[in-house]
Amino acid sequence: MNIFDINNIAFTMGGSGVSWLELVGVVAGLTCVVLAGRNSKYNFWVGYLYNILLFMLFWQRHLYSAMLLQPISFAINAFGHWRWTHPKEDEKSAGDSSTLKVSRLDMRGWCVALTVVVAAGAIWGYVLSQLGNNWWTKTFTPDPTPWLDSFVLMLTLLAQLLSAQKKWDCWIVWLVVNAANITLYLSTGLVFMPIVSALYLINGIWSLWTWYRLYKSGK
Asked: What is the DSSP letter of 11?
């Protein structure tokens, strides 16, 4: 049995088949975000596996932005792994000097981040909307939701970069991303991924409060 083929069904749910690839990806994703919400550096090891699984899943679903995000996410994950475990002197946690403390993004940082997200999302959304319509994209199956796919991509990258630097604000962005992902995944016939995104929302709310307490205590 090849668990990396979405045609290999583990079971059916709501009349739709749930592939082994999707099922294993769900378990890895949930484990990763729960560990991150608990400020555990071990979330990065699970994150590497999660990126690989999602790349294969989205390739087979023709979600090209989500697919291309995974190699970038893998690199950001590695950067975050290093940042969390190699803090500068003024960035050390009060609870453990070998780990990075939680900090917050200032207003200027927010303005720059959102400007980049809007600009990059508009450009990439246009590119995705042309897939399958022009001679240079005929080899691609059209993206079913190009604009949503594009802006979710940019917001996800922002959330990952903030998380890699242990910015409390990352959980605000993750809440928006996961709400959008529920719509995106449902539109492409995925069954388990909308469920896991809903669970991410719950974890994100809990983590928002947990990381705020860490921020206030300098940890």
From this structure: E
Q: How many Å apart are CA 63 and CA 123, to the nearest integer? A: 17
The residue ranges of every structural domain in the chain are 9-88+106-217
Tens of pLDDT, residue by residue over 150-184, are: 898 899 999 999 999 999 999 999 999 999 888 87
Nearest C-alpha neighbor of 99 from the set 39, 9, 168, 167:
39
CA distance 14 to 127: 34
User: Residues near 147 by Cβ (< 8 Å), separated by ≥ 6?
Assistant: 121, 125, 128, 129
pTM listed for this prediction? 0.83
**Cα–Cα distances in angstroms (integers) from residue 133 to residues 55, 69, 106, 144, in the given order:** 24, 23, 42, 13
